[in-house]
Design goal:
This protein has 65 residues and is mostly helical. Helix content is 69%, strand content 0%.
Amino acid sequence: MTSLHPMYKDSKHPAYVDIAKKTKRELQKAKLSFERNVAEKTKGDTKSFLHTLGEKLRLAYEQDP
């Protein structure tokens, strides 16, 4: 395992905060893009849609206390 640069170990460091925001934004964009893609293909491929829906429900159920 490689060691992290000291500025990335502190979650309040401006460089860390900037990268964390960019990463979160990219993850949200990727998730939205995937969900749109699945939604567009729903009529022809219901299996992938139902699989995605089941996964979302399973994850939501596991997160509830």
